[in-house]
From TrEMBL:
GO terms for cellular component: membrane. The gene is Slc51a_1. Keywords: Membrane, Transmembrane, Transmembrane helix. It is found in: Membrane. It comes from the Eukaryota. This is OSTA protein. The chain crosses the membrane at residues 12-34, 46-67, 73-91, 137-161, 176-195, 215-236, 256-276. The lineage of its organism: Eukaryota, Metazoa, Chordata, Craniata, Vertebrata. Coiled coil: none annotated.
Length: 300
């Protein structure tokens, strides 16, 4: 077993990280009970889903740390869950504006700025898009496609892996891992782009509802769960992270990524409890601050 091959400091580290994961789960359960009792039912499930992102990633990382052979399944589980959370975050911003109908009336003559990250932050020449029911549909489709196609691609990867055709660290053009990873990366960028477009429009309006720190926490989870893990895996495959028998370079890289994620997701879980624990009924009606200049303001 893993614990049998650890020295005393290693066992202490594993025990500490496991305790942090358990505390994160308890904090989330307490927060979910609070949300269920205090927040209207129209927003309840969305906010619980978003708050669950950090403890779920921490739990899957802890399982992967103790059971190394389950790493592929735990990483895929965390990836599928967070794909759904990205769509839920977009829907939360729409709900906090009062729903789609109220948002359309509020920004009746407004425009979306599509020259934003991560896809088009440098394309300042792109035109502004009117805010209509159709453009809202495309933004929701941008995150919904990620929540649908990523689980399908991950299921395909597991099927190929069980057959021996999918090797996670084999990025050869002849193997499926490179093409599946690139396709998932493209879907991820489009989903994040849709969220960024919506956030840029509503960030001033929803400032009183803590949307900026909520978006910051969401961005931290994206960066830490995707970019950080990818960089560590690249270092491991290039042998920059040295092997330490009986662990290979890739195994050590996986351990480092999992241990960092447990600590980071624990902090994000605690901070999320502070950010989301608000008396939401005191923030109604949804018109909190003035709109951005140039957009006609109309009360629902």
């Amino acid at each position: 077993s893993v614990s049998a091959g650890l020295d005393l400091p290693g066992r202490f580290l594993f025990a500490t990280l496991t305790l942090m994961t358990l505390i994160a789960i308890l904090v989330f359960i307490e927060e979910a009970v609070y949300i269920y009792r205090k927040i209207p039912s129209s927003k309840r499930s969305i906010i619980i889903w978003i708050n669950a992102a950090a403890p779920v990633i921490s739990t899957t990382s802890c399982i992967g740390m103790w059971v190394p052979r389950s790493t592929m399944f735990t990483d895929f589980t965390a990836g599928i869950f967070f794909a759904i959370v990205i769509h839920k975050f977009l829907m939360m911003m729409i709900k906090e504006c009062g729903g789609q109908k109220v948002l359309l009336r509020r920004f009746e003559n407004g425009h979306f700025t599509i020259s934003t990250g991560p896809c088009c932050c440098c394309c300042l020449c792109l035109p502004r898009v009117p805010i209509t029911r159709q453009t809202l549909f495309w933004l929701k489709l941008g995150t919904f496609q990620f929540a649908v196609f990523r689980p399908v691609l991950i299921f395909l990867s597991i099927v190929l892996w069980t057959n021996g055709n999918y090797v996670l660290y084999n990025l050869s053009p002849k193997g499926p891992a490179l093409w599946i990873s690139c396709f998932i990366g493209a879907l991820t960028l489009f989903a994040l782009w849709a969220v960024g477009i919506m956030f840029r429009k509503v960030r001033i309006l929803l400032k009183c509802k803590n949307i900026i720190p909520k978006f910051a926490l969401y961005q931290f989870i994206v960066i830490l769960n995707h970019l950080q893990t990818t960089i560590i895996n690249i270092f491991a495959t290039q042998k920059i992270i040295p092997c330490a028998p009986p662990l290979s370079s890739t195994a050590r890289g996986s351990y480092i990524a999992q241990q960092l994620l447990i600590m980071e997701m624990f902090l994000i879980t605690v901070i999320s409890r502070v950010v989301y624990r608000r008396k939401y009924h005191d923030l109604e009606p949804p018109e909190c601050v003035a709109e951005e200049p140039g957009d006609k303001k109309q009360a629902p």
